[in-house]
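Entry 12.
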Amino acid sequence: MNAIGNGLEKQLQELPGGLPIRFLTNSTRRPKRDILTKLQALGFDVDGDEVLTPAAAACAWLEANGYVSHLLVHPDLEEDFAACRTVGPVAVVVGDAGLYFTYERLNEAFREIESGAPLPDEAKSQLALVLNFLRTAPGAIDARAKEVEEALQE
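Predicted 3D structure (tokens):
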């Protein structure tokens, strides 16, 4: 185990009452598999059930509310949604898609939203950043961003 793992492991062993330990990440670009591999490489004895990710929370929300996902995420993250339901009404899930926030992918997501697909509150701020960026783009992209922003405010 490396120095980070050794020091942290000692602190975790000193927790009162044998509390269970979970690893929480806010990464919306890296799949759980990569995060788990990195933790294990650092020397942590951790399994997948002990790692909590935004994608897992999104899948739980989709399941609890009866939705299937329309993903606007980095392609590397799509594997974390493979076990989600595949039949039902659509909800838009937004993550850090980086360069994959393409006009085509955004337009597909916007069409789903305009058709009534819910957008979880956590995703609205991410999408607002994208819309602000698109405002600086010329022509059709800027006009489309304004249309969607108005639809989101309703």
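Annotation: The beta strands are 23-24, 51-52, 68-72, 90-94. Residues 66-153 form a domain with the Rossmann fold fold (CATH 3.40.50).
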